[in-house]
Design brief:
With 289 residues, this protein is α/β, with parallel strands linked by helices. Helix content is 35%, strand content 13%. Helix 1 runs parallel beside helix 2. The relative contact order is 0.17.
Amino acid sequence: MTDTATHRAEPPFDAQPQAYPGSTAAMTPTPDHGEDSYRGSGRLAGKIAVVTGADSGIGRAVAIAFAREGADLVLSYLDEDIDARETARWVQQAGRRVVLVPGDLSDPSHGAALVSQAVEEFGRIDVLVNNAGYQKCADSIDDISVEDWNRHFAVNVHSMFYLVKAAVPHMAKGASIINTASMNAKMPMERQLAYSSTKAAITNFTANLAKLLADKGIRANAVLPGPIWTPLIPATMNDEEVEGFGKQVPMQRPGQPAELAPPYVMLASDEGSYISGAMIAVTGGAALL
């Protein structure tokens, strides 16, 4: 069903299995990325932002918001060209420049190449959003292969290190790094041992990074989303989990990607100049203690 006052979908949802990593167009209801609702006010005017996992979901919502706030963008994604081109269309519609860079961020050389291309195109990086993620659920530890465990950490954690290491030399005082963690970092889900472990690692990485980069004037923060309606959900969860998705939080519904964009904008903007090492929870009322 849908809340007609807010147009925010509530469970139950139809079962809609998809192959990983999923497609936005195949989802019912279609996620809201702020296409018709986000209004910019120049808060990121003139900034250059690199956003990973930018083809769909949270990454698309962040890209749309950043563009409407005045930023030019480098969008990184694995290989979902149709979704990525749609994200780029919204950026261009906002009158901003956009560069698409597909590839696997678990490869250190690709992370370095992504940063090099951003610098070649724009001369610097003002904002780095580490949002790319991998998730695969498992009923028991016996169902988690070594390859899957390593893939979780390679995509979710190691790639973040590669990108930060490559990007920092091209970031000046006032720049911002924003990492996408999860409420799972504090409230791990039973079928998401590997995924939850990586999200806890991201929060620790972020807290330490804020200390290491303080003398350079570069801020590092994390956003911890709760259940968000993105292609990753039907692509990685079973029918029962999809049908009831979002019921586990007090608001009794999943968040839409558009509802995640404002914290990223604030952390990327100069308004967040004294915020570093923060973990901002966007969880539909679930308290992360």
